[in-house]
Amino acid sequence: MRLCGVWGPKALDFNLLIMASMLAHAFRNVSTSVSWTAKLNARLLSSVSHTPSQVQSASKKTLAKPGLRNVVLVDGVRIPFLMSGTTYADLMPHDLARAVLQGLLTRTSIPKADVEYIVFGTVIQEVKTSNVAREASLGAGFSDKTPSHTVTMACISSNQAMTTAVGLIASGQCETVIAGGVEFMSDVPIRHSRKMRKILLSLNRAKTIGQTLSLLGKIRPDYFAPELPAVAEFSTSESMGHSADRLAAAFGVSRAEQDEFAIRSHVLAKKAETEKLLKDVIPFKVPGRHTVTKDNGIRPSSVEQMAKLKPAFIKPHGTITAANASFLTDGASAVLIMSEDKALAMGYKPLAYLRDFVYVSQDPKDQLLLGPAYATPKVLEKAGLALEDIDVFEFHEAFAAQILSNMKAMDSDWFAKTYMGRKSRVGVPKMDKFNCWGGSLSLGHPFGATGCRLVTTAAHRLINGGGQYALIAACAAGGQGHGMVVETYPQK
C-alpha cells in the first residue's frame, strides 16, 4: 500500500493526540530494565535463524461441538502473488479468479457438478464484472446453474467468503462450497469527475442537437480532472499508511523495529519458498506471456538498505516506508470447503477443520489496524482455548508497525483494561510460531485474496509441524478485524 497522501498537524484530531500521549506514557511506565521491544526483537531475530520444523504439540481436545456439523478445508490454492504492474498487468480480475478456480479443480479433481455454491471476496471492483465470482465461475466451466456471489469487507473479504461458506454448510444448506478472493491493482477504475459524469448522463437523454450543444457548452476545463481511487477511509479521509504511522508513534514502535520485522518476513518467505513449503502456489500460464511459478515480491534486504528509504506517508518524520509496508499486489486464491461427511464419502483427506471465528469492529479513526488484538482473545474464549494452546499463528501483515503495535496492545494490562474491557493482557504469541513462512509484507497482499492464503498456510504449517490448533487474524479498513481457529485434521 505505497500510496502517498497529504499530512499535516491540522489533520490530527485533539482526542487522537491525547490517546497517543496516553499510550506512549503508559508504555514508558510499564517498561522494565530489559524493554519489551528489546525482548521482542531478540525473539524476531532468533526465529529467523532457528525456525523449528516441528511444533510437536501434545494432543489436545478436539473442538467439535455436539449438534454442529464439522466443516473441513479440503484444499486451497493461489496463483503467485505479483506486484501490480508486472506480469498480470494486461489481464482482468476475473481472469485471475478463473485461474484459481481451474487450479483448484485440477488439484482436487472435484467434479464441477458437485460444487453447489461459489463465493468470492474482492475490494476494488472492476465495473464490467461487478459480480466477479459469477464471471469467473462461468469462465472456469462451471454450470450456469451454480449460484455465485461476491462479498467485500476490505482486507478480510476472502475471510468473509470462507465464513459464508462455513455458514452455508453448517446450516445444512450446502455440502460443498468454493470460497476465494481476488484483487487486481494493476488496473483500478478511474472515473470522470462528478460534474462531467452528470453532463455525460444528460447527453444520453438529449433529444435534439440544440440540447446536446447546450450541455456541451456547460463543460469547463476542471470537469476533465479524473477522480483517482485512494486507499483511504471514507469516514476519516485518512489513508491506512497515515493510521499506521500514528499507531507506531502511539505504541512507541521505532523505524528500526519495523525494518527488522520486515526483513524477517522476507527471509522466512524466501526460506519457505526454497524449501517448497508454499504448497498452495500453483503455476499460471499468463496468456501471451510466460508461466508464472512464484511470488515476485520476496526480496530479502539488509538493515542498512532499509534505513536508506524515505518515509512514504508522514514526511519527513514518519516511520512507514515502501519496504516495511505491504505492496500493491495482483493475485487470487480459492479453497474447497465441505462438510466432513461429504468429504470422506468422496474419498478426500481434508487438511483441517474450520472451527470458531469472530469479526470485530473498532473506531476507524484511532484503532483502525488493531483488529487482531481484539479478535484474538475473543476467538480464543469462544473456542475455550488459551494462547499457549495455539501451535501456529498466521496474522496478516499490512504494515510491520501494525503487527508490532498489535503485539504491544496484546501484551499490555493497561490497554486491556482501558480499551478492551479486560482484566488483564491477552499475551504475545511466541515468535517461533508466528508467520514462520513469511507474510503479506513479503508474499504480497491482494486485498481480497489474503484470507484464503492465511487459512491454507496455517493448515499446511500445522501438518508440517505436527501441531493441532492454528489461529489466523487480520485487520481491515473501517476498523474491522477477523479471527479464526483452525484445527488440523487427524493425519493417521
TrEMBL record:
Subcellular location: Endoplasmic reticulum; Mitochondrion inner membrane; Mitochondrion outer membrane
Broadest EC class assigned to this enzyme: transferase
A cellular component term, taken from the record's GO annotations: endoplasmic reticulum
Catalytic reactions of this protein: octanoyl-CoA + acetyl-CoA = 3-oxodecanoyl-CoA + CoA; dodecanoyl-CoA + acetyl-CoA = 3-oxotetradecanoyl-CoA + CoA; an acyl-CoA + acetyl-CoA = a 3-oxoacyl-CoA + CoA; butanoyl-CoA + acetyl-CoA = 3-oxohexanoyl-CoA + CoA
SUPFAM superfamilies, sorted: Thiolase-like (SSF53901)
A Pfam short name: Thiolase_C
GO function terms (MF aspect): acetyl-CoA C-acyltransferase activity; acetyl-CoA C-myristoyltransferase activity
EC number, as in UniProt: 2.3.1.155, 2.3.1.16
Signal peptide: 1-26
Top-level taxon: Eukaryota
Keywords: Acetylation, Acyltransferase, Endoplasmic reticulum, Fatty acid metabolism, Lipid metabolism, Membrane, Mitochondrion, Mitochondrion inner membrane, Mitochondrion outer membrane, Signal, Transferase, Transit peptide
Pathway: Lipid metabolism; fatty acid beta-oxidation
Domain Thiolase N-terminal, chain residue ranges per copy: 71-341
PROSITE patterns the record matches: THIOLASE_1, THIOLASE_2, THIOLASE_3
GO biological process entries: fatty acid beta-oxidation
Domain Thiolase C-terminal per the UniProt entry, residue ranges: 348-487
Family named by the database record: Belongs to the thiolase-like superfamily. Thiolase family.
Function (record text): Mitochondrial trifunctional enzyme catalyzes the last three of the four reactions of the mitochondrial beta-oxidation pathway. The mitochondrial beta-oxidation pathway is the major energy-producing process in tissues and is performed through four consecutive reactions breaking down fatty acids into acetyl-CoA. Among the enzymes involved in this pathway, the trifunctional enzyme exhibits specificity for long-chain fatty acids.
Quaternary structure annotation from Swiss-Prot or TrEMBL: Heterotetramer of 2 alpha/HADHA and 2 beta/HADHB subunits; forms the mitochondrial trifunctional enzyme. Also purified as higher order heterooligomers including a 4 alpha/HADHA and 4 beta/HADHB heterooligomer which physiological significance remains unclear. The mitochondrial trifunctional enzyme interacts with MTLN. Interacts with RSAD2/viperin.
Protein name per the record: Trifunctional enzyme subunit beta, mitochondrial
